[in-house]
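Supplementary Note 3. Input sequence used for the single-chain structure prediction.
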Amino acid sequence: MGRAKPGKQHRERPIRETHEPTEPLPGWPKSHVSSELTGDDQFECVRVTIHGVEHYLHATTARELQLMLEENLKAYNELCEKHGAPKV
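The predicted structure, written as discrete structure tokens, is reproduced below.
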């Protein structure tokens, strides 16, 4: 890595990818994922935390994420049913 310019603060590299641990952590599912409202006065009104990384979303973005997850889980359950595996 190169040297930082004088007077410029060091910034940590943002987390770009996380994976589920091999064994569930105590407190699952909240130890892995949670969501909550940030407050009435916030434009980014939904906070989603995944593996400790906080994501602040507009309500419309959160809704689109919900629709995408539902679509993917439906496809996943169809595969599970086809192969005799438990569905989620």
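The mean pLDDT is 88. Residues 43 and 60 are 11 Å apart (CA to CA).
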